[in-house]
Input
Amino acid sequence: MSSSPPTVLLTGASGVLGTALLAELSACAWVTALIHRCPCPAADDQLCGDLTAPGLGLDRETYRALARKVDAVVHCAAVTDFTSGPEAAHATNEAGTRAVAEFAADAGATLYHVSTAFVARHELTRSQLGRNSGTAGARPEDYLDSKRAAEDVVRSSGLPAVIIRPSIVIGDSRTGEISAFQGLHSILQMLMRGLMPLVPLPRGSLIDFVPQDVVARTIAALIFEGRREGEVWVTSGPEALRADQVMETVFDACAELGLSPARPRFVGPDMVDRLIRPVFLADGLPERTLRRFDDMLAMTALFADAPEFPISLGQVPDGPPPLTRADLEAALRQSLRHLARTKRLGTASGRAPLGPVAEGVPA
Output
């Protein structure tokens, strides 16, 4: 890459990683955001397009002009909703990546493709394990299939390309702020509200998460280094917190906020399948509560006694170092405080503290 500031095409600029990356790149690169529905005033330039349309949904002259000036393409846009279904997931995550790769080839640009560390856990979904998904609307297998297919698109393209695999992305390590709450935030909120009598996980399971700014700094460092190949794992690796350590951090934060939810019990997925779900959950439980529990089973299957992820932090020049457990606990606390402020929980709401909420699930 030349010594002049690079021109970067960014997809998913209004998303969690896109917004964090804009903050990292704004001083050192010219960023053109390819937007679809949400405007992106923080970018230097923005073009309205569509990853699922020919030519990125741009007219021919605009496409050609963009291709002439772009040095690097950062592809963050993706369908991440586990309830979206296979068609929507593949339309954006696989076909959209193919369109982005075709543009990068036309531009002679390096492609920085944001995937997910969880492609390494495809075999741990409940469907792959042969377990009943019940009423769950969450189907992680659809998302993971589409992201694996997207990686195949990148690898088979022949482009200079880097595949970046973050684990769960939480809010900014300093403020906890995030542009949109993620699946982990939903679980944390349920814990803080006392809506989870059971956690279907062995307590020693590793919950690997990374703050959004750490992921953004890694991607920015890869661009400025001029990295053109390889796979980069942005994870906590061996320092990932155990499920019981996450729980302790949550309840410490609850105490600060004046919340006193009942502590849930850790229950292994085998016991849930053999005893709890058929005996306690099959009859008389509200449909909404049962579906929420089955969604929880679908998501936690990816963590139950899973091996630690590889890690590349500390191996990227000028990138962030590996995270320590103290770093992770501090970042999680900030995310919990931001969640409490936003959702008006406990003393963060200026109201009386919330007590435990019973929903009819056995404690």
Q: What stands out?
A: The chain has ten helices and 13 strands. Residues 93 and 147 are 6 Å apart (CA to CA).
